[in-house]
Amino acid sequence: MLDVEDAMTFRHTPITDGDLVSLDEGIRELYSVILVRDDRCWLRNLDTGMDHIVSRRICRRIGREAA
């Protein structure tokens, strides 16, 4: 489990391929980052398997996906 300090570190770390993120919309779904290019992220919803391309600004990093 993440403590507050860890969560703040993740929030200020740039999003990269392989990260786990949630979206700024208030929906508590988890996404895996497939690819990051410029200001866009290609995401895969971990529950449904659907892919999305979104702005990097709305992604909130919550940790690294286990390898």
Description:
There is one protein chain. By secondary structure, this protein is mainly beta. It has one domain (4-64): SH3 type barrels. It is 12% helix and 43% strand. It is built from 1 helix and 5 strands, in the order αβββββ. The protein has one helix at 4-11; strands at residues 19-23, 31-37, 40-45, 51-55, 59-64. A 5-stranded antiparallel β-sheet has the order 4-3-2-1-5. Strand 1 (19-23) and strand 2 form a beta hairpin. It is globular. The protein starts with a helix and ends with a strand.
Architecture blueprint of SSEs:
Elements: H1 4-11, E1 19-23, E2 31-37, E3 40-45, E4 51-55, E5 59-64
Antiparallel strand pairs: 1-2, 1-5, 2-3, 3-4
Question: CATH first level: which class?
Answer: Mainly Beta
Helix content: 10-25%
- Helix/strand class: mainly beta
Radius of gyration: 11 Å
In short, what is this structure?
The protein has 67 residues and is mainly beta.
Keywords:
67 residues; mainly beta; SH3 type barrels; 5-stranded antiparallel beta sheet; 1 helix; globular
